[in-house]
Amino acid sequence: MTLLEIKNLKKYFPGSRGVVHAVDDVTMSINEGETMGVVGESGCGKSTLGRTVIHLQPATDGNVIFEGKDITNPTKQEMKELRQKMQIIFQDPYSSLNPRMTVGDTIREPLLLNGRCTKETVDNECERLMDLVGIALRLKDSYPHELDGGRRQRVGIARALALNPKFIVCDEPVSAMDVSIQAQILNLLMDLQESQNLAYMFITHNMAVVRHISKNISVMYLGQLVETSPTDELFETPLHPYTQALLSAIPTTDILHPKKRIVLKGEITSPIDPEPGCRFADRCMYATEACRQPQKLEELLPGHFVSCCRAKELNHL
Fold first, then answer.
1. Is 242 exposed, middle or buried (0-12, 13-18, 19+ CB in 10 A)?
2. pTM for this one?
């Protein structure tokens, strides 16, 4: 069942030199209990997309539909209700925590502000959440600077879970951690998803991570979706030249069958008032004049959508 629908969502930022098209005409849907991975290089608009969906910043245009209801322009009361259903786990677990609040205070705060617990019951719920995400109860009175990165992120996860949300934006939640800690946090998120039926928008630039956790993947480039597909199919049959270049950059230990690296050349298109057409065209070896015309996502394989006028020809479909 579809939990979240994003239709033609746009987020622009006006500036002195023009308007930055951070998110431009993005459409996707996420089902209950499933993970949509959003990948792309730094600056492509992944985090802005996640923040706009949960109303940390207002949308410029488009629609966000949650549980069948349009929540693009919620009232103050609707926003309070949405905050209980939609949460976010931030990239940097240190800067996202108040250095003056202990672990216990951080987890208790949303419980008290939203009236989920009284002062008499909040400690029990706080300890339950700490146990749920694997934080030792002896750390309840510790401050963020006394914890390592993995424990800090677990505090952020406990805070996000405090109000029993249905949807969580995971904004590169493991990018600042060692590989062993990354695995622990990813396994925790997957266990929580299974036990609580959570839906995730998992934002990352790490293709190995997104393959491990996501059912579907959307690839972004300069504010636009260029490809979206079930995870396994995307890795086996990437159709957009940008996706192919991304996958070619994944390191491999197979010395007998080395990958052929696709090296992108050319200038990156400016996100300030960009021209219509494919924004990857200036770096694409297959670009023609047809690529300068507006592109749209087309379903070339079942459930596999690509925004490239030459994808069918280049992939012999």
1. buried
2. 0.92
How many C-beta atoms lie closer than 10 Å to residue 244's C-beta?
15
Closest by CA to 9, choosing from 79, 76, 58, is 58
pLDDT value at position 224? Answer: 94
| Confidence at residue 110, expressed as pLDDT on a 0 to 100 scale | 92
Given a cut of 70, the residues of the chain with pLDDT beneath it are: none
Amino acid at 142: S
Range 101-108 contact pairs with CB under 8 angstroms and sequence separation of 24 or more:
101/143, 102/140, 102/141, 102/142, 102/143, 103/130, 103/135, 103/139, 103/140, 103/141, 103/142, 103/143, 103/147, 103/155, 104/140, 104/141, 106/155, 106/159, 107/155, 107/158, 107/159, 107/162
Between CA 3 and CA 278 the distance in angstroms is: 30
> What's residue 264's pLDDT?
86
Mark residue 164 as left, alpha or beta (left: phi above 0; alpha: psi -120 to 50; beta: remaining): left
pLDDT at 90: 92
In 3D, which of 82, 313, 68, 35 has the Cα closest to residue 199? 35
Confidence (pLDDT) at 229: 95
Alpha-carbon distance 284 to 140, whole Å? 52
Instruction: Copy the structure tokens of residue 238.
Output: 């990437």
Task: Give the tokens for residue 82.
Answer: 């949405």
Q: Which stretch of DSSP H or E encloses residue 305?
A: strand 304-306
pLDDT tens digits along 20-51: 999 999 999 999 999 999 999 888 999 999 99
- Under CATH, which architecture does the 2-214 domain have? 3-Layer(aba) Sandwich (3.40)
Query: Are the CB atoms for 168 and 199 separated by under 8 Å?
Result: yes
Question: Domain spans of the chain?
Answer: 2-214, 236-317
What are the structure tokens assigned to 9, written together?
């969502």
- Amino acid at the residue 154: R
Copy the structure tokens of residue 173: 């939640």
